[in-house]
Design a protein that fits this description.
The chain is α/β, with parallel strands linked by helices and 378 residues long. It contains 14 helices and 17 strands. Strands 3-4-2-1-7-8-9-10 form an 8-stranded mixed β-sheet, with helices on both faces. It has a 7-stranded mixed β-sheet with strand order 13-12-11-14-15-16-17, sandwiched between helices. Strands 5-6 form a two-stranded antiparallel sheet. Strand 15, helix 12 and strand 16 form a beta-alpha-beta unit. The radius of gyration is 21 Å and the shape is elongated.
């Protein structure tokens, strides 16, 4: 099979979507398929043509809209003419890839990582939320032969906001191997400058509105108002640099509320160092307001960490092990759960049987969708 993937970004760009497509492309190449990827360049080291893990990658210089690359027709046309099936993802490639796939009669599929729909209004001003909503609907409703949803929650949201469509669910995959991180040269307690006897609640990810960090912050402030003893507790954040304005706002709020002793922030880490920090944390907190799949939550579960999570989107589909859920966007309920953990420790958690999300299932599932699409063209 000749497969063309048109993506906003590709490995080594760091992100859940980029990880999924790198794992997928590599797995398909390992199975004997020819895979071409066209994506935005990443600077001097990732520009032009590269061969990476058996994948043929073209890193292109594209303009951007609010940081989102806008693929050029001239970079895509020959590769789409060449392929048996074309695969893209939301958002900005949606229109041009659909146009070219129909022009050259190529089977097409678009991965839907998440559909916010009306949930935009939960996290932004009316005007901005309306703009995002309209653009999201425009992208998600582009005509494709098939749509790939990364979870049942995302599939349901697509049908709710975008219409019927031929939407198939194939879960993302992640197979953590904790021992690979054991010898990495980082120590969570040294990184945050805290004593080994402190209980650490760890958050890691972007400081975006949908990640729920402000709900989490309000919950911690609620604990302070209740006079809960936090002397042996630290809330640690491995926080991305973007969106920079939201990160700065979050840091400012912590200082304004006098919580610097209990809420500690450090920059992002590479995957191995982050994995080591996750292993050392006592608890992981995923307070997301929206979640298309929940890779961070799954990673924590696969590493055997005790997890506190919101019931947003796909998170209930993904989590397992020792977990404790709270009502999405409800800082009081989150504060209740945090207090339970501080007071009761392990007894506060419920046990959910293990779930598996394997590379074979993801790659095989997408491969079958491609085969079905090509068969329909014959």
């Amino acid at each position: 099979m000749k497969i063309c993937m048109v993506l906003p970004h590709f490995y080594p760009y760091v992100g859940g979507a980029e990880k999924m497509f790198h794992d997928l492309a590599k797995g398909l190449a390992d199975r004997g398929h020819e895979v071409r990827v066209i994506a935005q360049d990443l600077g001097a080291d990732c520009t032009g043509y590269k061969e990476l893990d058996g994948i043929h990658v073209w890193y292109c210089n594209w303009p951007a809209l609010f940081g989102h690359p806008l693929p050029k027709k001239s970079d895509l046309e020959e590769n789409i003419k060449w392929c048996d099936v074309v695969h893209t993802s939301t958002f900005t490639p949606a229109h041009i890839v659909s146009v070219l796939a129909h022009k050259y009669h190529k089977p097409s599929i678009m991965t839907i990582h998440e559909v916010h729909g009306g949930k935009w209004y939960w996290v932004d001003t009316f005007i901005r939320a309306t703009g995002f909503y309209v653009y999201e609907m425009y992208c998600c409703k582009q005509p494709y032969d098939m749509y790939h949803a990364v979870s049942e929650a995302t599939k349901a949201d697509y049908h709710k906001y975008c219409g019927r469509g031929d939407v198939r669910r194939v879960y993302l995959a992640n197979e953590m191997v904790p021992e690979k991180a054991e010898n990495v040269d980082i120590d969570l307690y040294d990184y945050f400058g805290i004593d080994q006897n402190k209980k650490v609640f760890l958050f890691y990810g972007r400081p975006g509105q949908t990640k729920g960090i402000y709900v989490y912050e309000k919950a911690i402030l609620e604990l302070k108002k209740r006079n809960v003893d936090l002397s042996d507790t630290r809330f640690c954040f491995v926080l991305g640099s973007e969106p920079a304005n939201l990160r700065a706002r979050f840091v400012k709020r912590i200082k304004k509320n006098g919580m610097q002793e209990y809420m500690l922030i450090q920059p992002s880490l590479d995957r191995k160092r982050l994995s080591k920090c996750i292993m050392q944390a006592d608890y992981v907190v995923v307070p997301s307001i929206t979640e298309g799949f929940g890779l961070s939550a799954l990673e924590a579960c696969q590493m055997g960490k005790k997890l506190i999570y919101s019931n947003a989107g796909s998170l209930p589909e993904v989590v397992y092990g020792q977990v404790l859920g709270f009502q999405n966007r409800n800082e009081v309920d989150l504060a209740d759960k945090l207090e339970q953990v501080i007071l009761k420790k392990d007894a506060a958690f419920e046990q959910i049987p293990e779930k598996t999300f394997t590379y074979d299932a993801m790659i095989g599932g997408i491969e079958k969708l491609y085969q079905e699409l090509i068969q329909k063209q014959i």
